[in-house]
Amino acid sequence: MSRRQQWERRYVRALVLCDLLAGSAAGAVTFGLRFGDEVTAYNRGYMVLTGLLPALLLAVLAVSRAYERRFLFVGTDEYQRVLRGGVGLIAGAALVSYALSLDLARGYVLAALPTAIVTSVVLRFALRRRLHVARSRGQSLRRVILVGHELSVIGMARQLRRERYHGLEVVGACLPPGHDGRGLGAVEIFGSFDDVASAVEHADADTVVVLSCPELDGAQLRRLAWRLERDEVDLIVASALVDVAGARTTIRPFDGLPMLHVEHPRLHGGSRLVKDVFDRLGALALLILLGPLLLTVALCVRATSRGPVLFRQVRVGRDGRLFRIFKFRSMYVDAEARLAELRHLNEHDGVLFKIRDDPRVTRVGRWLRRFSLDELPQLLNVVLGQMSLVGPRPPLPAEVAAYADDVRRRLAVKPGMTGLWQVSGRSDLPWEEAVRLDLRYVENWSLSLDLVILLRTMTAVVRSSGAY
Prior knowledge:
The protein is of the alpha/beta class. The chain has three domains: 3-136, no CATH class; 142-238, Nitrogenase molybdenum iron protein domain (Rossmann fold), CATH 3.40.50; 270-463, no CATH class.
């Protein structure tokens, strides 16, 4: 058994334990709150149901394929399958109760089952974060041989080094015949396309990634797959599509040929209506929940520097519509007038203006920015329908005027309080990378992706990296 298979099996066993724990905890807590400590003839049946809940949850998640390794480690497929399994479990409980005329306490069912699902998602998220931390330290990685042209290999190697949480470590490459690979730097060359099998053995690799190149046709790929199959080495064929998630792609056979069908992104329709309702209700709930904190921050801003508590600025929203964004004021009132004299100190590339030690920021403002507290009033923009909880960064009109045609795609959705840019480094990201993350979000939006980003935002705010 390879090292990859060993840590993957340990990870799946940990997932099973997490789900058993989620089911047990949700059942026990709900039973205690609903019936107390006393066991009676009435609640004895609920004790049995509480004991069965972990096994039922495990079975439903197994049927939903929430333990298949191709859906784990990165992406939102894992969480989507857990949520679908949870909906199926609740619907199944309702149908069984109706069919058998069982007098189930609705409060128990409507509390225990959703709690178990939410707890499972949270525990799986924590387990994945632990895996990503381990991967950043060089552990639990797949050893990858890249197969393709030199420029493609350079680009893929650079991207995999930047996003190590995907768990792919490049240990070598195979290039077309006649290429010496001098521009590959530290990536070791193991020969040409005919040497892939021997390269896997010499590099102790467990994964081969074939990049788009005309020299490798279907027959050659099939023979390569047969050779790798003997040693249980994974074969990945990289698509030429950029930042298109698996949920939008479907393999459809046509006369024996696998055709990749790409669906259009969900920018309109019912799914967007669900997102809008989720955003507004979520923002309204957060405003009520965070009311005392908002009042405290407002008092601190008012007491430490003259000027209004709220900072209002024109930003560009969906389809280029202008709106006024609300933020707690973190700068002195003459900040805009002093911008011209500080323009030469800009530390950010692209169209953004950022200075790590901006002299225009107040003492309280530095703390507000560090923990993103200055952005909380944007919940009002979300309630008004001008922004989303999750989306691309809300740009200034001057920034939009400098956009290239591709970058304008960011305006196809509402801007967000947080997004992939926020959880991936915020102001520390290069402009090109920030744009790529925003475009990836626009192309692959889903409600489960929003939930994952919101969870990752909490850890990003605590780390406060890139916040200035």
